[in-house]
Amino acid sequence: MHFRNLCAGAGRLVLAAFLAACVIHSARAEDMNDMDHSQMKGMDHSQHEEAAPKKDSKPKKSSGKKSGEHANHPGHAEKKSSAGMQHGGMDQSGHAGMTQHDMAGFFGPYSITREGSGTSWLPDATPHEGIHTSANGWMFMTHALINGVYDSQGGPRGGDKFFVPGMIMGIAQKEADNSTIGFRAMLSPDPFMGANGYPLLLATGETADGRTHLIDRQHPHDLFMELSTTYSYKFSPNSSFFVYAGLPGEPALGPSAFMHRTSGMDIPEAPITHHWLDSTHITFGVVTAGVVLDNVKLEASAFKGREPDQHRYDIESPKLDSYSARATWNPTKELSMQVSWGHITSPESLDPNTDENRLTASATYTTKFAGNNIWSTTFAWGRKMLKPGPTLDGFLLESEVILKNNWTFFTRAERVKENELLDDIPAFVTPPIFYVNKISVGGIYDWPIMDHLKFGIGALVSRYGIPDVAKPFYGDPTSYMVFFRLKVS
Fold first, then answer.
1. Within 10 Å of residue 283's Cβ, how many Cβ atoms?
2. Among 97, 237, 268, 299, which residue has the fewest nearby CB atoms (within 10 Å)?
3. Residue burial 119-141, b: 16+ Cβ < 10 Å; e: rest
4. Per-residue pLDDT, 426
5. What are the backbone dihedrals phi and psi of residue 298, each rounded to the nearest 5 degrees, phi first?
6. At 320, is the pLDDT very low, low, confident or very high (cuts 50, 70, 90)?
7. Residue 351 per-residue DSSP state
8. d(CA 457, CA 337)
């Protein structure tokens, strides 16, 4: 009861803060109409002349919603944001152009719709949710998503719990001549759920007490998920050089983290492939340098390999003992593909003598259909090569359809080669290695409450493919989650 009261109190505080933020930003929206557009990123007319919008003789009043939003569905309407900004336009070649009211990317001369977590890329067609404002030449964006989840994991190794995951994100950016400086902060209420996280069958990774592995549970994320700064310099109309540093931050390794991908950000549970694909999205010490060449990005990182410890409220000491490299290509506005490799020094505190080499490849496709409906799909593969130890593969396919009538439907299918699931069974001197499979399907219905705030109710159900060696311990389980959410966008 004490834990639930703590979560309830934290939830009320978060909701109050969100409502206050919405009122403040909505009040400021009217002032944004008179802002000096010369302070915002214009398009390069020599490269995208055909994409430049015609100026009206009289400024239009802002609606307080983003481009790509439907009037009845905050997050997907065809109107300008509160700062008068739009998504990137498209030139006649099909690549992303820059409209006069577009918020530029942190790392190069393209629309910010392309940017995911850390320095990763998403398709240019990605809807960019957030409340936009500006002041004194600075551009600001805030975004938040908080879920209240009742989780019931089936079978003898399952469990039940109510928990509150989510994120609160803010960015600030200023451009001067050919340079852009930016700051990003992202916080999470996850630590309030307790050090051992929440029940999630087939999930492994990290520790709750510094003595035992978390098995069949998803660890909570740290209070500070990202505190980073960036600098980029445009050396041609379509190219740039950038530097990114975070404490914590995210190195150039893997696809964009699951809570930032349109194909999976509305799914309230973490993928069991998390530690094959994007577990480094919270790294206490990272420096990345890279170059953007039109629709190609090449980058390399030095970062701390050790995963966050069980103390989720602090900021750990930085250390640059690991490294990675990533190449990303956005051939069209709907598609983003990446391949990356990294050497991670001693990622697990309970197995400090084991290093990991990780190889990942992924593709994300996002598009509109039948008006303002959105469909996004990600396929990703990750390979963990433990040194010493086995080589383990993980596969993910997730997809989400966001309908303009406020319905969202999603599914996620995964296949993982595991070596830790039966670590806690004394009968096994050497735990067996085997593949497990999982598929989840679900949906959400959202009600707009006020400008920039909506309330949703959803549910999901999960089924598993358990091999014979593990069935005596797992049975044939079915799991489900029911949840509500508040989304500021």
1. 28
2. 237
3. bbbbbbbbbbbbbbbbeeeebbb
4. 84
5. -120, 130
6. very high
7. S
8. 32
Taking alpha carbons only, the member of 272, 248, 245 closest to residue 258 is 272
Q: Which CATH superfamily is domain 2-46+62-488 in?
A: Porin (2.40.160.10)
Name residue 211's amino acid: R
Task: In whole angstroms, give the CA distance from residue 111 to residue 86.
Answer: 9
| Dist CA 302 CA 321 (whole Å) | 7
Q: Are strands 138-153 and 159-163 parallel, antiparallel or unpaired?
A: antiparallel
Alpha helices in 121-243 (DSSP H): none
d(CA 95, CA 98): 10
pLDDT, residue 405, reads 80
Whether pLDDT at 274 is above 70 = yes
Peptide bond into 248 cis (omega under 30): yes
What pLDDT, on a 0 to 100 scale, did the predictor assign at position 489? 79
The contacts of residue 85 (CB under 8 Å, 6+ apart) are 40, 66, 67, 101, 102, 103, 132, 139
Query: Could you give the 3-state DSSP secondary structure of residue 281?
Result: helix
CB contact burial 373-405 (16+ within 10 A = b; e otherwise)? bbbbbbbbbbbbebeeeeebbbbbbbbbbbbbe
Helix (H) or strand (E) holding 340: strand 335-344
**Whole-angstrom distance, CA of residue 416 vs CA of residue 420:** 11
Q: Which tokens is 332 given?
A: 């069209």
Residue boundaries of the structural domains of the chain: 2-46+62-488
- Give the C-alpha separation, 116 to 143, whole Å: 13
Q: How far apart are CA 344 and CA 321, in angstroms?
A: 8
Report the pLDDT averaged over residues 404-410. 92
CA–CA gap between residue 227 and residue 6 (Å, rounded): 26
- Side chain identity, residue 294: D
Per-residue pLDDT, 178: 93
Distance of CA 435 to the CA centre of its chain: 26
70 — pLDDT class (breaks 50, 70, 90): very low
How far is it, in rounded angstroms, from Cα 29 to Cα 476? 53
Give pTM, 2 decimals: 0.80
Q: What is the pLDDT of residues 34-48, one digit of tens each?
A: 444 434 334 344 444
